[in-house]
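Just wondering, does anyone understand what follows?

——
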Amino acid sequence: MNHPHARQLLGFYRSCYLADSRDLDLDNLGKLPANRWAWLDGREELASGALPVIALSPTLGAELEKQQNLYQRELQLIYGVLPICGRLKRDDAPTLTICGPLFYYEARLVVSAEGDGYLLSVDVQQPHANWRLLRSLMLAEHVDQLSGLPLSAAPIDARGLGALLQWLQRFTAVQDTLHGAAFPGLEEAAALLKARRSTHLSLRSAAMIALAPRGNGSRGIAHELQLLQQAERLSPALQQLLGEPQRTEGEWRRLSSPESLPSLLSEVQVQALEGAAYFDLSQISGPPGTGKSYTLAALALDRYLNGESVLVVSRSKQAVRVIADKLRNDFGMVDMVLDGDGQDMRRSLRNHLDAWLQGQRGGGRFSDEARRRHLRNLERRLGHLSTPLELAEEPLHQRLQELVEEERALADAFRLRGEQSLHWSGLLLRAERGELRFWERWWILPRVRRKIREATRLWALVDDLRDRQRERERSSRRYLNLRRQEQLGYLISTQRDTLVRYNQALRARSSQRQLALFDDIEPEQLLAAFPIWVMTLDELHRLLPLRPELFDIMLMDEASQCDIASALPAFQRCRRAVVCGDVRQLRHISFLSRVRETQLLQRAGLQAEEREAWSYRDNSVLDLVGQQLNSQQAVTFLDEHFRSRPALIRFSNELFYGQRLRVMKERPGGVPCGSLQLLRIEGQRGRNGVNEAEVARVMELLTEHIAEYWESPLKPSIGVLSPFRDQVEAIREQVAGRFSLEQMREFRLLIDTPYGFQGEERDLMIISFAIHRGNSQAAIYLNRADMFNVAVTRARERQVLLFSCDERTLTPGHLLRRYLESQQSQRSEEEGGGYMNAFQQAISAALNQHGVRTWASYPLAGQILDLFCRRGDKCLAIDLIGFPGEGEGFLELERYLVLARAGLETLPLSYGLWREAPEQALQAVLQRL
């Protein structure tokens, strides 16, 4: 590798990652609360391969599921076998009580088909050694033998068990392994309790299920960082990320096809698609509720349309799941997106392959012509040409192109018609004022009046355009899915051996065997079978070899919460990369001190002065990408906010985003719904960090909300947030004791700190600030901009603030004080309207007679609407054309589409038509209301 500085940085980031990582804490499961773990009895049947699933008692299953719902991000469900129990005496430290499994599996809990019990499943091909515990048990003279643990990716049989027992006796402080030899027979709880209290360590024949605190490290990522240091070649995206000189942008141009997507994109979203096609490294800045996931899904599909393979990653399982759901549900993509879909990613991939290879899914037989056509496409693919596949379904593809052209023609007709309306209306106004010359009055004016009455209505052109867009979206979905079926059928027909080898690699019992099988697979053929991969960063090493430029493009969501080291293997696997996030939201957490980081930097051969630029501790992936971009054109700022009612986003929009967000949910004239409510509580923050009065009020609010909507078919979701962990734990404990699992599930109840809510949203948010007068340290924590911004922007419809303090006791610039004071000064959500000119007055008077309320010059979604109308629950914007003043012109067509995305129809109405055919114009408005 001819990049010495990059090699030094890779070594530095690997050292930081290892120093900062923590393994899953499974040293002593006995210290967990009793409702988070349990021994199993009878015979072990999962790890030994006897059964694919086992049944749990309804009581145990329900309690585990309830705890799992309450602690979605903090706890991980595991199934452990062969526990080591007893006490470990150490010369230089206190004695340790140990009760942890020798190895474990990530477990999955599902409700049985009958709905009366719970089933537990694991993937026996993915065992995880309890490395944290084993490191403490290794004999000093044998610490280098830790990597030799004989743990096979297969069900435990007598031979495998014997190898494990022999290894333990030889290299660790566990000398009593006799009881473990009885596996898969399981010991009784009384014997295990006795073993836990014993003064010596023993291996037991037992199995347990537990919700254990999550770790923040991955041995797979650490290993791949080591491989990166030794790599001969780095991908262009990784080189640019690490500060290496790059080619001049624009040496060649890739295509973007937003018009062929089954979606309606804004101008800035189209810019994001173009940036992803053009730049090796680009960034999407997405404030809360601006459709980051939707944009990334559209971007992935756009790159697939242009013949590219796509990797979508994030540290957050929730983030990648949302993107996969949008590709399937919002864009209608079937059998194209590879993700875990709520289960283990490897298992999901194996299920896909099994179904295809067994003929349950995919295409059928292919003609010679079809084979020749796909061979040409494959040659193009191998030549890295972004040429869309030729399809047998050419009529559908042709119709899609025709619709795109028809949309363009209608858009041109709309602009021309708008200019004519503006000109004709101006002529009528001059006639009314007596400003026309003789020949204009007797020759031009009659012709114009006739044209106004006979010409195509502007709203008809808008209606036709929307009809074409809807048909295009439907045709695009059919086209993409038919294209995918033909592509997949061809691959199964002609490249079946590749899919078989990859299936074998996924089922390999050892990582060495898996890597050997990976080396025999052509990545182009593999990615043609699976064009869009969606997964977490921790899953990459289990499924894909570490090859430079394996994918054409990588998309990363929630990049502000991702540390740099974890992302480097993903950057190596792609030619280009797009990172998405928000520097105004929470960043990744590192426990590495600045002093230690500087030491690691110097050990890697770098200068201490470089720490600020390359800091692992203080920089996220989003920060580092922002520093390395070559052009501001590589940055896209998403500015349409869809999530919240205006009162809920206004403070953040003004303070953190300079009022650049266009709020899409603004509606005047509605019944006041109290979307933002402040409840002052007479509470005190105790020494345990809990404000009991606020906890009690939270429970009252939850009880009221659940009771009000329990019989409703649509139940508004609930989130409870507190900035303080102790307050969150106290609320969770109360919720677990009062509400059923069904209630929690139906209302999607989430209780967490801001860190657990980033990327989440709920209809009702309850925020417990949990401070009172005199809590100076707690108040300082509340003044963190990133934490505060996340905390107050999670609500869609309603937000309730619980506050036990007087904001006037906080410093004048304190965020919480400014937030509460800003709510008191905000205008009512009912307010609207303004000065009306004669044209607006005439239309408003006519509409008012039919029960329509109107507002003039109303701001919405970054626009000033000439006239906003409301009758009942229906709303309509009217774009008035041709009357002198600020609104004389007509809106650009893109503005109509912006308002359509906000769920608001816009009707263009010229002054000329109102004068010549007022009844027709009035009926056009009323029909839409």
About this structure: Confidence is low (pLDDT under 50) at residues 363-371, 378-391, 827-833. Residues 637 and 862 are 15 Å apart (CA to CA).
